[in-house]
Design brief:
Layout (H helix, E strand, L loop, with lengths): L1 E3 L12 E3 L6 H11 L3 E4 L4 H13 L5 E5 L2 H15 L18 E6 L3 E5 L14 H9 L1 H6 L11 H21 L1
Parallel strand pairs: 1-2, 3-4
Antiparallel strand pairs: 4-5, 5-6
């Protein structure tokens, strides 16, 4: 996984390996990276460079090769307008569902014809998080439809028996309390 670093970034963000490109070389390198990628992930943005990348993705990729991470709903609407203008169609309406995962408000993949398909942000409440942690588990659960589309078998943490027993205990206690106080 390779990410293009933001111009002027003093310290790289945690995550993917970053490459930093000069103003005169970044577009050619982006094209090269997109053409060789199994999946391109764009995080919503509003800069001219971001809109250029979206246009290039539309002309270079098939829809199933693009995933958008939504951290700003207004920027998502702008992205969907760019796609609609490129296709000569009305802009699609997309509703991001589920509780945010950190700053991520949604995930959007695309069907044939560049039809956006939002992925529900899953909670993973009853999962045994172990070494995974809550954020990783939530992303893996939320991205299941994308993994399945690409034939990727993701390992999902098992449901915790202890958590199920705890929930069952609370439900029994609540039922008994309601019966006794009634």
């Amino acid at each position: 996984m390779v990410a293009v670093g933001r111009p002027g970034e003093r310290l790289p963000q945690v995550g993917a390996q970053r490459v930093y490109l000069t103003d005169d070389a970044w577009q050619a390198r982006i094209i090269e990276l997109m053409e060789g990628a199994a999946l391109v992930v764009l995080r919503t943005g509003s800069s001219a460079g971001f809109h250029w990348e979206v246009g290039r993705a539309l002309s270079t990729l098939s829809p199933e090769k693009l995933l958008v991470i939504v951290d700003n709903r207004k920027e998502l609407r702008g992205l969907l307008e760019v796609i609609a203008n490129h296709l000569g169609q009305p802009s699609a309406k997309v509703s991001c569902r589920g509780k945010n995962i950190g700053s991520v408000k949604g995930l959007v993949m695309f069907e044939d014809g560049w039809v956006p398909r939002p992925l529900r942000l899953r909670r993973g409440t009853l999962r045994d998080l172990g070494e995974w942690g809550n954020l990783s588990t939530r992303f893996v659960l939320s991205l299941q439809p994308l993994f399945e589309r690409h034939g990727i078998r993701a390992t999902i943490p098992p449901i915790s028996r202890l958590k199920i027993v705890g929930v069952a205990f609370l439900l029994v206690w609540a039922a008994l309390a309601a019966f006794v106080w009634d």
